[in-house]
TrEMBL record:
Endpoints of the signal sequence: none
Domain of life where this protein originates: Eukaryota
Protein's organism: Culicoides sonorensis
Disulfide bonds: C6-C18, C13-C31
InterPro entries in the record: CUB_dom, DUF7805, LDL_receptor-like_sf, LDLR_class-A_CS, LDrepeatLR_classA_rpt, Non-NMDA_GluR_Accessory, Sperma_CUB_dom_sf
Entry's Gene Ontology cellular component terms: plasma membrane
Membrane spanning residue stretches: 1007-1027
Name the record gives this protein: CSON011022 protein
PROSITE patterns referenced in this protein's UniProt entry, alphabetically: CUB, LDLRA_1, LDLRA_2
Keywords associated with the record: Disulfide bond, Membrane, Transmembrane, Transmembrane helix
């Protein structure tokens, strides 16, 4: 039977036997014929292969003094397939010469150099005494170890040479720690200490030692640094020697099943370099930055550059590169701290942590993070050490450069002295964040962190979303800018007053939060134990422009220490500053619930004295280690308003527009708009708002108002135009509305002419109103405002014109008196639409009658439901296009169709002045008892309105003298002059009744009394006379009857006698 040839990982003995290559020249006759132990053999200058699953021991014996200098090359190759793809070398015992320095002539007596055949040589050296097992993983198929000893010496601990290693080959698909694809499932620690023959099968693969590392070491870490077993499946499969297999068993159920990390993208190696790599578009890849030969020992004398760039950025976005590692066990870079541990007590006291900046200068193994693509860009982080989560380093743009530097000389030390096995090097996660391109969330200039925010609105301002290098200063220039010129009236006012042009804007700052983290490595609880004001990270708010930094360098710069600025001339002063441990004015309740929180008050915020505010954010330490975050709201308070102030306050929202002050040279209507000052609205803390816009024309002028745009917030309200009279009325929730008011005569009250609101964009616009008088007011009011009400959703815009009125309308249409009649069709037809004003004396009311058809009624104090339509309330047809509008002092308007005064129709419209129907008669009437009568679209005809002045009838028991003349059906007291004047004023005609109008009843009381007595006497005389006459007559009648009776008796007797 023909014997199969030996594999590439085996040595073919002279007798045909196959033994592992590491058995060659080990002073043991493994072949049986001593062919593996020839004379003068050496393990050096040989190539070693292996088989997956097997671990091979290899030891170099101390050279003799006559062999010094000693040079030995060991080449390990993974040939693919069952012979693996990668090399793992475990250094069990290591002593070569002595180690003196990391940087200069650190290995004078000898050293070990490690190189990979397909990579350039970097020339790093290891020497001295090694601490326990150190593991080396190749990145290519061939790994070369060069052992050199120049001086052999001996001390109390022995000779300066000892070299024992284990090597094995690994399949690449099992190297999940480096290449990803880690499956989350829990396994128990394991190891195999059995030996087969002379071969030690302590094939402790990465699975075992990583599990041991997590299972023991993480128990000593703080909970915030605990990491799940994401790499617990390790690098290789189970150890297998001579057909015997060590199995992995577990008594616990898998907690992480059906989940596998993606394969890592490790970048593209830059040609001609050992380890520099380029990464691109990491938003779509699982990018990982790894030290060379991770997770094993990294080479010496090395500088690696990892350039990360995001090429594909969505439109309107800006890319930020994020580098972090939340799992502290995946980072360990040699530091001086662990190198100085000599005793067991030192090991027990050792706590692994991230070291930064100067702490890494002793060993000079460190990672440097640049905010950009070159080493000329700002450094935002420099660290070494490990065993602690690494905070995120965020670039300000789509590029990030990471530099990994190692010193030329080193010695094998355990990263974690309390653990047998641990990782070396680092693995860093890369992510991409997209922010709005046009936003102050990132500095566009890496060397100058400066933001300019100009405008007329408001917004939220937060600290930069990227990391800031140490000793950085970011300036935020907030300036309100004018987008519209000042009105002609404002300019005229300023010229007359010789005053400087006031600032249109002020800046309102409300700070929601300010957070400055404790020193890196300290928790908030520990920091509170030594709480004091820490201004190494500070936010200052300056009132005014400050292009240059203030001269005051002290963190406690006070308001009196005003910095000099080339723009401010000592006018810039400090409004406030925020430091860790200080409690300034803030509106922190808004940070928790911005949508439902109450508005910030002026006691919780800051308002500038000009249109410029500068925010200065300064940090002494990098924000990677000590996050410096703030969030505030800025508002450019727009003080510019159209027109002139009614009072002396320039910023009052009550404005006036005077015809004499209006520039009519362009012949265009003037524009007036609602107030934009946020402090008049709910978001500025106001509950109710009332702004008046008064238009004053010259004598003989009229005012034309056109409302083009309006919004009244989130209330369900709309306005509709009554086509009959071309006026607008509000329907729905009219808590916010605009009213057009007219003053018919000088010093009279205002009467509402139109109501406009719009929250559903269904209102009928534009609304056009032309007055008949020379004074009009527009009232923009809102009650019960909420934090959602601001100038963005509550505004209006309109135009105004002063137009010439009819020149021949001289009639004074202002009436008063106890009663009267107004002929609506009198005068020129152009003047008939001028309103009539009927006024009552104080304490009196008016009763008005119009023969006509009642059409509709609007009461601004009781608005109609939202979906109400405008319709007539009478079924009869109105034959004229003219309309009479009767408006009372409380704004109630009645629209009627006038009928001829002599018509036989009985339709009458009756109107009482405001306050007549109030329940409490003793309550003061807050509305004026006047009535306005308008005749719109006038036509010829006999149309008349009558009015009656009256008082409320007093309750029972009051003196009758107080109410001598009454209209019983009105239950009112009237003036005596209307009684019996030939005109019917009371609806029932009681004022013209006989009982009131007899001439006899008008005589004086004395005469009436005398006449009464005379009449009484006459009546008594007449009665007596008549009585006597009747009595006498009755007496005569009685005598005659007696005689007749006597005669009748005599006649009867005669007759009787004759019969006999």
């Amino acid at each position: 039977m023909q014997q199969q040839p030996c594999s590439i990982s085996e040595l073919t003995c002279s007798n045909g036997k196959c033994v592992p290559l590491n058995k060659y020249c080990d002073n043991v006759n493994d072949c049986g014929d001593s062919s593996d132990e020839p004379r003068f053999c050496t393990k050096c200058n040989r190539t070693y292969h292996g088989t997956i699953g097997l671990t091979y021991n290899l030891e170099l014996h101390r050279p003799k003094e006559d062999k010094i200098p000693y040079v030995c090359l060991l080449t390990f190759t993974a040939s693919g397939g069952i012979h693996g793809d990668l090399i793992q070398i475990t250094i069990d015992s290591f002593t070569i010469g002595k180690f003196t320095s990391y940087t200069q002539d650190g290995c004078p007596d000898g050293y070990l150099q490690i190189s990979e055949q397909s990579r350039i040589s970097v020339g790093g050296m290891w020497c001295g005494n090694g601490w326990g097992p150190s593991i080396i993983y190749s990145e290519t198929r061939t790994l070369v170890l060069a052992v050199k000893l120049f001086k052999l010496s001996r001390d109390s601990e022995g000779y300066n040479f000892d070299f024992r290693i284990k090597y094995k080959v690994l399949p690449k698909d099992k190297a999940v720690v480096r290449y990803g694809g880690i499956k989350y499932e829990e396994i128990i620690p394991w190891s195999d200490s059995k030996e087969i023959g002379s071969q030690s099968s302590d094939a402790m693969n990465v699975t075992a030692y990583l599990e041991h590392f997590y299972g023991n070491y993480n128990q000593k870490l703080d909970k915030q640094f605990y990491h799940d077993r994401s790499i617990s499946t390790g690098y290789a499969s189970n150890s297998h020697v001579s057909g015997r297999k060590t199995e992995l068993t577990t008594g616990r159920s898998n907690r992480y099943t059906n989940y596998t990390e993606p394969k890592y993208y490790l970048g593209d190696l830059i040609p001609g370099t050992y380890c520099s790599r380029i990464f691109s578009d990491c938003d779509k890849k699982a990018c990982r930055l790894q030290s060379p030969n991770f997770p094993g020992v990294y080479p010496r004398n090395l500088t690696c550059y990892y350039a990360v760039r995001q090429h594909e950025v969505p439109p309107g976005k800006h890319a930020l590169i994020i580098m972090r590692q939340p799992k502290g066990n995946l980072i360990w870079i040699n530091s001086e701290t662990q190198a100085t541990i000599k005793s067991k007590s030192d090991k027990d006291k050792f706590v692994p942590k991230i070291h930064t900046w100067d702490e890494c200068d002793n060993v000079q193994d460190y990672v440097t993070v640049y905010d950009g693509y070159t080493t000329r860009d700002p450094i935002i982080m420099k660290f070494c050490g490990g065993g602690q989560a690494l905070p995120a380093s965020i670039s300000s743009g789509p590029e990030l450069l990471v530099e990994f530097t190692t010193s030329p000389f080193g010695t094998f030390t355990k990263p974690h002295p309390n653990n047998i096995n641990s990782l070396n090097g680092f693995q860093l996660e890369i992510d991409v964040r997209f922010v709005e391109q046009k936003s102050p969330t990132y500095a566009k200039n890496k060397r100058n962190c400066e933001f300019w925010i100009r405008g007329t609105g408001h917004g939220i301002l937060e600290s930069p979303q990227h990391s800031l290098p140490p000793n950085s200063t970011c300036l935020y220039h907030l300036q309100g800018t004018e987008t519209a010129s000042r009105s002609y009236e404002q300019m005229q006012l300023l010229r007359r007053g010789n005053s400087p042009l006031p600032s249109r804007f002020k800046v309102w700052i409300s700070v929601y939060k300010f957070e400055y983290g404790p020193k890196y490595g300290l928790t908030d609880e520990n920091a509170l134990l030594t709480q004091h004001e820490d201004c190494t990270g500070i936010l200052r708010i300056w009132d005014g422009p400050m292009r240059e930094l203030p001269h005051c360098k002290d963190a406690d710069c006070t308001r009196e220490e005003k910095p000099y600025s080339k723009y401010s001339q000592n006018q810039t002063h400090l409004m406030t500053r925020f430091c860790r441990g200080s409690i300034p004015r803030s509106c922190d309740h808004f940070a928790t619930n911005e949508s439902l929180a109450r508005p910030c008050t002026l006691m919780e915020s800051f308002v500038s004295s000009s249109d410029f505010v500068t925010l200065e954010l300064r940090n002494t330490e990098t924000t990677v280690l000590r996050p410096l975050n703030f969030k505030l709201k800025y508002e450019f308070v727009d003080n510019m308003q159209d027109g002139l102030p009614i009072g002396n306050n320039e910023y009052d929202c009550n404005r006036k527009f005077i015809s004499l002050a209006v520039d009519n040279r362009r012949g265009e209507p003037g524009i007036f708009r609602g107030v934009k000052n946020i402090f008049y609205f709910g978001r500025g803390g106001k509950v109710n708002m009332s702004c008046i816009y008064r238009f004053e024309g010259q004598r003989g002028e009229r005012v034309r108002i056109v409302i083009n745009r309006i919004s009244t917030g989130n209330r369900t309200c709309q306005s509709k135009i009554d086509k009959d009279i071309n006026r607008s009325y509000c329907f729905g929730n009219s808590n916010a509305k605009l009213q057009i008011m007219e003053r018919p005569w000088h010093e009279s009250i205002l009467f509402p002419r139109s109501c406009i609101c719009n929250t559903t964009n269904t209102s009928e616009l534009p609304v056009i109103f032309t007055s008949t008088s020379r004074e009009v007011e527009v009232h923009f009011t809102a009650i019960n405002m909420t934090p959602f009400d601001d100038p963005d959703n509550m505004f209006f815009e309109g135009t105004y014109e002063f137009l010439p009125g009819p020149k021949h309308c001289k009639e004074v249409r202002r009436r008063n008196g106890p009663s009267g009649l107004i002929d609506l069709a009198s005068g020129e037809i152009e003047c008939r639409d001028r309103p009539w004003l009927i006024e009552a004396k104080p304490g009196h009311f008016l009763y008005l009658r119009l023969k006509g058809l009642y059409l509709r009624r609007f009461n601004p104090n009781a608005p109609q439901p939202f979906n109400t339509s405008i319709r007539n309330d009478t079924p009869m047809r109105c034959d004229t296009k003219g309309r009479v509008i009767i408006t009372t002092g409380d704004g109630v308007s009645i629209t009627a169709c006038p009928l001829d005064h002599d018509t036989s129709h009985r339709h009458v419209v009756e109107v009482f002045s405001a306050g007549w129907n109030r329940r409490n008669i003793y309550e003061d009437n807050k509305f004026s008892p006047v009535i306005s009568v308008e005749y719109l679209e006038p036509v010829d005809g006999n149309f008349a309105v009558t009015w009656l002045e009256m008082q409320r009838r007093l309750p029972e028991g009051m003196p009758l003298e107080e109410c001598q003349y009454q209209c019983p059906e009105l239950n009112a007291c009237v003036n005596s002059t209307i009684m019996c004047d030939g005109e019917i004023h009371c609806p029932s005609g009681a004022d013209e009744s006989f009982t009131h109008c007899s001439a006899l009843l008008k005589l004086p009381t004395e005469i009436l009394a005398a006449l009464f007595v005379l009449m009484l006497v006459l009546c008594c005389g007449c009665s007596a006379y008549i009585y006597r006459k009747i009595k006498r007559k009755c007496r005569r009648t009685s005598v005659l009857q007696q005689r007749l009776k006597s005669l009748s008796s005599m006649d009867t007797a005669v007759f009787d006698e004759k019969e006999n």
